[in-house]
Every structure is written in C-alpha cells, then in structure tokens.
C-alpha cells in the first residue's frame, strides 16, 4: 500500500508518518515538503516542492497512491482569513485533486462552515468541499492530542501548552473521552482508514480512538 503524507514534519504528521513506517501493510510512503524532512527509512521518499498550490510538477510521484493524509496546518493566531485559507483550504483541495485513493483530512474539534470563528469556518468549508468529492474522504476532528514517542509541535506556544498540560491527559481521558486522543492513535486511525476500515466520514476523538483499535 502506498500512502502520501502532507505535513509530515508537524505534530500530527509525525504521528501519521511513524505509524505508516511501522505498519507492514504500508510498503511505500511519499512525503512532501518545502525542505528536507530529516527522517530516513527504506520505504520513505521525501519530495521537496515549494508551491503547494500547484502540485502538477510532482504529480508523477503520487502515481498509484492508495491514500493521502493531509496533516498540514498553521495556527490561526495573528492571521487574517485570507492568510489562513491557503494552507487550510486551498492546498488541501489541490492535494485531493492530484493524489488518488482514500483522502484523510485533519480538521479540528469545533469546525463548522457557519461558525463566526474564522479558523472553524475555514476548516468547516474545507470539510464540506472535500466530503462532496466522489471518492472515499474522511475528516478527523481531534480535540486535545497528547504527543507521544518524542513527537513535538513546531509551534512554540503549542509546545509550551502540551508540555504544561501533559499531566491532564489521564484526567481528560476519563472525564471527557470524546475530546482526547494521542498522536499514535491518530496515526493508527489514518492507516486503518487507508486499509478500508468502516467508519463514519467525520470522526471526533472518540471515533478516532475507536478506529485505531
């Protein structure tokens, strides 16, 4: 099985890549980024590409893909909607246009196209457009994600928050299981969906954990 991963250097993407490399059913992984990834593995190929708004020049790298995991994202803090939209919406739709197979889009808890909150509105609109495509599409809406196996966020404020709140995970797991998951479970759920696992098309944290098994 061949899987393409966008955003493999981010926290969620690192978890997805780790589970792809560990699963024997995944024979080939292609990651895409603007700079070298810094990770090597016999079944991993990293494609350096600058313009995520036009993936046509590297489309041949994705031939025969069984699934595409779109894990790219940026914090909305300090950004206008016009600045936030390309990575969250435009690049995701371009990835779906160029890469075949099952498409898994990492959104977020609270995404809603009708929301007054900018990030939730953009993510919700993206979800709707992807789910309208004539192909297998799944949307993941994780809430609190615990990073495992040395994985960290590239965003400084997120690194601080996850470090400070790590002790909360066992408590949240008990009192609010619908809203908590881990990078490992998110990655395992993605691989399971690529394998054809049966699930609702929009998965919150509890659904992600269930599919991950």
UniProtKB/TrEMBL annotation:
<dbReference type="InterPro" id="IPR036291">
    <property type="entry name" value="NAD(P)-bd_dom_sf"/>
</dbReference>
<protein>
    <submittedName>
        <fullName>Epimerase</fullName>
    </submittedName>
</protein>
